[in-house]
Design goal:
This protein is mainly alpha-helical and 80 residues long. The chain is built from three helices and no strands. Helix 1 crosses helix 2.
Length: 80
Amino acid sequence: MNISLRVDDDTRARLDKIAERLDRPRAWVALEGIKQYLDYQEWFAQSVEKAIRVADAGGPFLSHDEVVAKATARRQERNK
């Protein structure tokens, strides 16, 4: 199946540059990009749906202060 799309000059130049670096055709790079985008969107939608099911079932939930404390601890751990 073929599909066509229009892109602006900057996007085409970026696409061409990556295709050249990878020694692949422009269409291959574009298809890989589309696949990765779709994979991410499907993962994100499934994650949101799962979180909604958990929330609808009653949790568990964290308070705002607990979320901030966990985020602060992660940031401090990363910065060591």
